[in-house]
Amino acid sequence: LIGAGGESTAGLIASAARLLATDLALQASLRERPELIPAFLDEALRLESPFRGHHRHVVSDTQLGGVDLPAGSHLLLLWGSANRDRAAYPDPDVVDLGRPRGRGHAAFGAGAHFCIGSALARLEATAAITLLLERTERFGLIDEEPPRWVPSLFVRRHATLPLRVTRA
Question: Average pLDDT by consecutive 10-residue portion of the chain (168 residues)?
Fold first, then answer.
């Protein structure tokens, strides 16, 4: 739980900061209306789920999306694909702070496997992004030092995220 909590929170904060660093209008909007930060964080989770997916065992014959899954099968559930499904999310590659079902994404899992630390991750990310926006006039990526991702099949987190910051 500790490892998963650290990974998901670090991934969320950095991905949210990178999304804001590439969109000065969105930064300005959130500075003017900080009450939209939670909706933004859910969009960041949807767009850049901290975990790429999870492995599951099929315990009894079942069907998923019209596909038969026999007992004993193995699945790799890909959160990024689910969270960008056009049937569930019109304009899935766009940050939409008024998106219906904003918390309907799969970034924190679902059902019995829903992340028990999701509220803490959201609280920590809200505090971090709020402070970043309050204490800066603007921030952006550094062209000469692009962000790098941790090379992993399961984790979606930045290894580095150099930012150029103009203080408020």
Answer: 72 97 97 97 94 89 93 90 92 94 84 83 96 97 96 90 94
Give CA 34 to chain center in angstroms.
18
pTM over 0.70: yes
Nearest CA-CA partner of 37 in 120, 115, 95: 95
* Domain residue spans of the chain: 2-51+84-167
* pLDDT value at residue 3: 61
Are the CB atoms for 114 and 79 separated by under 8 Å? no
The hierarchical CATH code for the domain 2-51+84-167 is 1.10.630.10
Q: How far apart are CA 37 and CA 44, in angstroms?
A: 10
Token representation of residue 161: 């995220």
pLDDT at 102: 81
- The structure tokens listed for 128 are 């971090």
C-alpha closest to that of 145 among 158, 135, 154: 158
Helix (H) or strand (E) holding 123: helix 118-134
CA dihedral 46, 37, 155, 78 (to 10 degrees): -10
Beta strands 74-78 and 136-141 are unpaired
